[in-house]
Amino acid sequence: MTTTRRLSLLTPSGRLTLGNLLGALRPMAAAQDGADCFYGISDLHALTTPRAPDTLRAAVREQATLLLAAGLDRSTLFVQSQVPAHAQLGYLLECVATTGELGRMIQFKEKARQGASVRASLFTYPVLMAADILLYRTEQVPVGDDQRQHVELARDLALRFNGTYGPVFTVPEVTVPPAGARVMDLADPARKMSKSGADAGVIALLDPPDVVRRKVARAVTDSDTGAGAVRRDRDAKPGVTNLLEILEACGGSADGITTYGALKKAVTDAVVAELEPLQQRYAELSADPAHVAAVYAEGARRCREVTEPVLAAAQAAVGLG
Ligand code: AMP
Hints:
There is one protein chain. The chain is mainly α. It is built from twelve helices and five strands. The strands form two sheets. It has a three-stranded parallel sheet with strand order 1-2-3.
């Protein structure tokens, strides 16, 4: 029996949130059983938008420690820039990708619309993402709708490369991930809670209990306070529905709760209890940075071992070396 290989990368473009925990880190931890998981920090992708070097370095260090604190200790953990094959294969794939297809990427079009001039890497990053996927011979890539087009590009590039130069890459399939938690912004429940969102509506994984309490206390509910006000209704009561879903995802229950005040107290208690062991483990790991560095050094070593033959096959196929 072959073990399933799983690959997932998180970009250090801000502080990890409760949404990242419930929607990504928790399922990633659960997936470790019976699978060979590669979980990476995509620091190269973070460079597609301007950020100060010290900010990026701090975000990578914090995220590296948080992945371990979240229990991903039975996986190969790595930082993308420490595995040179990602950037090297990215370049080879840029030589089979076309400007036309990259210009059609919805995320590029949306981001480019916001500013007059953007980094060239924002245009080419879906190709680097294709390299991330193809280097690990990933067969199935479970992604949400926002990343679907990028994985389809990885498929197209793999097929085109194989057709032009010979069968080097495994062609990945896009699969639908199991329905996971979708945590909305507390201050603006029409938006997903995001690393780049305004601070008031976003619970960061390292927020101390009093900050969690303050943010939940200010969460948007609505003006309807009569009997039955605390109920799920995504269209009419998005803020209340979000709080109820966070409560349940954090192991709490809304049984007997009839007021927004009681709901917010229960949500605060459940979130604080969910974050407490993670924050404690984070503090322990932060006190031992050499251990964290050793875990990532070993992860990068294993990634190099897995990716170098794939890169070498691609280089030989195009006529390099
Ligand atoms: P992002 O932070 O958008 O780069 O996403 C990294 C991972 O976290 C992806 O697997 C997302 O689906 C997941 N994620 C991010 N924000 C949320 C959220 N608010 N609710 C649920 N999952 C999320």
